[in-house]
Amino acid sequence: xxxxxxxxxxFFDTIDGTSVCAMCEGALHTGxxxxxxxxxxxxxxxxxxxxAAVRKQRARRWAARYRILRRLSIGLVLVGACVMPYQxxxxxxxxxVGLAMMVGSDDRPAPPSLPAGxxxxxxxxxxxxVLALLGRDAWIHPLAGxxxxxxxxxxxxxxxxxxxxxxxxxxNGHCGVDLxxxxxxxxxxxxxxxxxxxxxxxxxxxxxxxxVRISHHNGTVFTQYFHLAAIPRNIERGVVVKAGDLIGLLxxxxxxxxxxxxxxxxxxxxxxxxxxxxIDPEPLIALWPLRVPIDEGNAGLVTLVAPPGxxxxxAPRRAGRGRKASTQVGPPADTDAPSAGANSDExxADTDAPEPSVEE
Length: 360
Description:
Oligomer: single chain
Shape: rod-shaped
Number of strands: 15
Distance between the termini: 122 Å
Low-confidence stretches: 1-16, 86-108, 323-360
């Protein structure tokens, strides 16, 4: 077999010694065509066979390149899937730990503001953020429909003027809102699922009369219902109640000058053993669903169709009003606050509870 300049055969011989084309294996009866672009020099019978051989070799090279590229792509995807989650966790861990430490401690400074691209609850929470959180939960109005009861005058709104040493967030002293009074003895219902935290069954004339206090969301939210005429026997400390359960009858216990009504208040405690703070419940009760009795009986259905209430807004703080006791011209006031005594079937309220509100 003849050898080419590079030591490789430049054509193929059959058994009978006839030279053949490297592409079509046809006999070389005429001229020989030797390409310079092929890796191995070969001899072809025609320009057509030469071009076919070049195309075939180019296709093999591109197929090899695609295989290598596909393997590299798969490798990069696998490496990224394994590495990226750990990098994200490392970047996120310091801030998460800091927030967790803040929630568990009441004497640590507030963490710095979150950098761009980070998300989380506002800290420390403001009244606006707390109201937004409570507004997304399932609550009902404490008094039944068909009309939504709201404070009827400025003296019944949150922060209205009351004498005595009040919590600073209560502005001028009133730490809740006054609702109803049209029907003495109408049903007062739990606004949300919770656990009875305190019950005052005795007259308690100077501390808000008969009242019930309910703990919600594992002790982070509390609702108080004052001036009740009566409290069912099954309402005791530690009893689990559902939204809409009967907890008392509207009355005038502890009320000295005003008409019978329900003094309703909401307070929050952001972490265990943390301070408890009153918030204005009026924006909430303006939207909470109403329980409407059926055929004027005990049965009823909850509706979202009733038009929302129109909040009057909390009272602005008067100049010079602080936490110290103050004098007020007008009728005497009665106080709404837990106070254990001979007529109370429960121990005194937690010393960390908010200061009492005052009723006219």
